[in-house]
Design a protein that fits this description.
This protein has 11 helices and 13 strands. By secondary structure, the protein is an alpha+beta fold. The strands form 3 sheets. Strands 8, 9, 10, 11, 12 and 13 form a 6-stranded antiparallel beta sheet that branches. The longest helix has 17 residues.
């Protein structure tokens, strides 16, 4: 990573964008911008959907904090553009970002590395979704149907009967040409942030999520106050450390750096944790989980933003 000089650098907070998570990104970016300015960083908002990225170079920006979520911000595209511009940026690089947003590719790599993730099928029609339901659904537990390359539970459905498969497939397929059917794991839902890179990467405290009626959807994530977040998570002795170790392995498996947040389900019967996905540009809103976990570790919101900014780097620095 490049050395950060708070006195001389000009920082762009990339926010907004053109994905389905634009409104959340605007909230994340506003929080990051205010936090960085509060500790003396010369930071400015920059919305790539309103301005050409080439303006970053013309206006003398030396570093970018990526607060974009979803496509065209978390999928390797912006990362690649910043590589060409030679401007260090926060979060994982081009390849890790493009893999992590693709849940299918993520699962393939995790399985190749022996990491546990729920059983799944890639489907191409409503009929294939019904076949997957017959194969994956457990008694009394639904199957999850979702787009392969979206975040924030956008396009996600819980299917509890075969006659729901067509609508679930249509919803997911409207957002992505690749649709993933995934075995539902009944149990505790937790999320775990990671900060840093390589040997310096460290895992923050586990957060256990208790959503109303067990439905942790887009609304519950960002706009309601009924969801409970438990940190300390209150897990059985030794389990939190084991989950943290698993998340660190999953982070390293995808080649992540800078920061990310992994979502995990813990089977209620066996206590086996299953990796769901990794978010490589996590939310930073008032409801977001990385700041919550960081606070439990004694890291304030402004300090967290500054630490992440200091990790900004490039895959390949141009001569």
């Amino acid at each position: 990573m490049s050395q950060f000089d708070i006195k001389t650098e000009k920082v762009a907070v990339l926010l907004g964008g053109q994905s389905g998570e634009r409104e959340v990104s605007l909230m994340s970016g506003a929080g990051v911008l205010e936090a960085l300015r509060s500790v003396g960083v010369n930071a400015h908002a920059f919305d790539p959907s309103q301005r050409d990225l080439s303006e970053l170079k013309k206006e003398g920006f030396t570093r970018c904090f990526i607060a974009l979520h979803g496509r065209f911000g978390e999928d390797g595209t912006v990362q690649g553009a910043l590589e060409l511009l030679g401007i260090p940026y926060t979060g994982p690089g081009v390849m890790a970002s493009s893999i992590a947003i693709d849940k299918i590719m993520t699962k393939r790599l995790w399985l190749a590395d022996g990491l546990p993730t729920p059983a799944w099928r890639l489907v191409a029609s409503a009929q294939a979704t019904e076949a997957a339901y017959a194969e994956l659904a457990q008694p009394g537990a639904p199957m999850i149907v979702k787009p392969a390359r979206e975040g924030s539970t956008l396009g996600l459905s819980k299917v509890t009967a075969a006659d729901q498969c067509a609508a679930a497939y249509a919803l997911a397929a409207g957002m992505d040409e690749e649709v993933l059917c995934e075995q539902f794991i009944a149990g505790d839902e937790v999320t775990v942030p990671v900060l840093g890179s390589a040997a310096q990467a460290r895992v923050l405290p586990v957060i256990r999520i208790q959503a109303l009626d067990g439905n942790y959807d887009f609304q519950a994530k960002y706009y309601t106050n009924t969801t409970r977040y438990l940190v300390p998570a209150g897990l059985p002795e030794g389990e939190e450390a084991a989950i943290q170790a698993l998340v660190l392995r999953s982070y390293q498996s995808l080649g992540c750096r800078g920061w990310a947040r992994a979502d995990v389900m813990i089977d209620a019967a066996t206590r086996q944790p299953y990796l769901l996905e990794i978010n490589t540009s996590p939310g930073m809103t008032s409801h977001s989980l990385v700041p919550m976990s960081a606070k439990a570790a004694g890291i304030s919101y402004p300090e967290l933003c500054l630490q992440v900014l200091q990790t900004a780097t490039l895959d390949h620095a141009l001569a």
